[in-house]
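Hello, quick one for you while I still have it in my head. A protein chain has come my way and I'm curious about its shape. Can you walk me through what the C-alpha cells say about the fold? No rush at all, and the record is pasted right below.
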Amino acid sequence: MSSVPPTPPPGGGSYTPPPPSPGGAPAGGSSDRTLMVVLSYLWILALIPLLTKKEDREVQWHAKHGLAILIAEVVLWIALTAVGFFIPRGMGGMGCGIGIVQCVVWCAFLVVRIMCIVKGVNGQRFRVPVISDMADKW
C-alpha cells in the first residue's frame, strides 16, 4: 500500500489533528459524567450519582445540590399544603390563592433544575443562594 501525504488545506499551512484523549474518553469529560450530572437534578434520581460515583468530586457536588433542591422543594410543598389545609372554607379565594402560589413555586423549582442541568452539562456550577450553602455543609 502506498502512503499519500495529506494535502495542505486551502490558503496554505498545515493541519495537525489534536491527540486523542487517554482512555478514549471525550476531552470535556465522559458521557457517563454528563448523564450523572443530569440525573443529579431529577428529583430522587439524584441518589444514583451520589451512591455510584463517590470518587468523582464534581458529580458528588451536583448530586448533593440536587438532593438539597429536592429537600427544599418538599419542605415548601408540605408547608404550603398545610397552610392551604388549615384555611377555613369561609375564607373565599384564599385556598385558590395558595394553589396559585404552589404552582408558581413549582415552576420556579423547575426553572432552577433546568438551569442547573444546563450549567452542569457545560462544566459549570449554578449556585442557589440558601440551598447551595446548605448542600455545601454535607
Observations:
- Helices lie at 31-40, 47-52, 57-86, 94-121, 129-136.
- Residues 20-28 have pLDDT under 50 and may be disordered.
- The longest helix spans residues 57-86.
